[in-house]
Specification:
Elements: E1 5-6, H1 16-23, H2 32-49, E2 56-61, H3 64-75, E3 81-85, H4 89-100, E4 104-108, H5 118-128, E5 132-136, E6 138-139, E7 144-145, H6 148-158, E8 161-165, H7 177-180, E9 184-188, E10 199-204, H8 206-213, H9 225-236, H10 248-262, H11 267-291, E11 295-296, E12 308-312, H12 320-327, E13 330-331, E14 333-334, E15 344-348, H13 357-373, H14 380-392
Bound molecules: 4'-deoxy-4'-aminopyridoxal-5'-phosphate.
Length: 393
Amino acid sequence: MDRPLLMIPGPIEISPAVQRAAAAPPPGHLVASFMEDFARALAAMRDVWRAGPDAQPFVVSGSGTLAMEMAIANVVDAGDRVVIVQTGFFSDRLAEMARRRGAVVTVVTADAGCAPPVASVADAIDRIKPKVLGVTHVDTSTGVRVDAEGLAKLARAAGVLSVFDGVCATGAEPFEMEAWGADVYLTASQKAIGLPPGLALLVAGPRAIEARAGLKALPPLSIDFDAWQPVMQAYEAGRPSYFATPATSLVGALRVGLDEIVGTGDPAVAMAARWAMHARAAAALREGFAELGLLPLPASPEITANTLSALLYPAGIGPALVGAVRERGVIVAGGLHPARKDAYFRVGHMGWAAGSTDALLRTVLAIGEALVAQGHATDVEQAVTRTAAALSA
Ligand code: PMP
């Protein structure tokens, strides 16, 4: 590869087949081949999300932030009580969206690199009796992953609607939307789904659709479940429909990308394999990073995500490391949590790269060589060997 390897937590390296699909001449939104792609993509979303037949997938042009806004605007009304699980920059964004909807927001706080225990969230739910619980599955600002199963089941048992931002998780971290009773699970195309940026992807369960029906303050028309649901239903049934022009090239790529993830076999088996691939890549990288003397920002292994690594700079090393890694052919990202952003950097390992031994080893090598160049004594060869051994174990 004669261009740098993109190892940030999104956008990510994408597969050759997805690239070809995204670069094809744009189809019209009412032609048969496009309708077929859209129908397959919507059905595959249910499989990847592990959602039930009564859940509604939505594919809308936009970013992950738009998907977050769509979720909040359709289930939160002015005056509603909302509890947000704080994990960092992106959970704070979710809280701000709920506030702007006129909700009364309670944040269950945690320090950077930590997640509130499920028991603390349970206490807040008991005390506040909210309508909605908002959770960031993996907070990309810190590499912290919450106990999504625990939180989804907690909300369900308490009769609280749960909204999960899966932008840095969906398609890579275990999530069982139907079995855990989660109400909205959203992501964006440029993360573990493995596409270029441009699609907001969201699945809403029946309780979320019902919540939209009961709103007093209508959501903005362009992100209204009611405006989009008939369009999604029509496409899934093989009929053309129109509300606003879909990103036709990206929908074609979505079909290819989701088929690569879930195929045509048993979705439970395919998703377990997909999650295991990300767990294996993350564990192997961590072997290499540990050898290089890089410690994770997340406070414990249980809350350390498999989609990215947030790594503390060793003594004497700072944000200039990111540029030095870039000079060695790999792009990584700086810190993002406002409280600690100059203390760590981030490496994404989602999608195509998580399945590429070459990409993972090149990443460890580039980071190791950059550390040495910046004056940090470490055995780079040993780090690469440890990563390779873990990948082939
Ligand atoms: N939530 C999370 C967890 C994210 O990682 C991101 C993007 N990094 C977003 C939301 C926002 O997505 P976008 O940048 O596509 O608007």
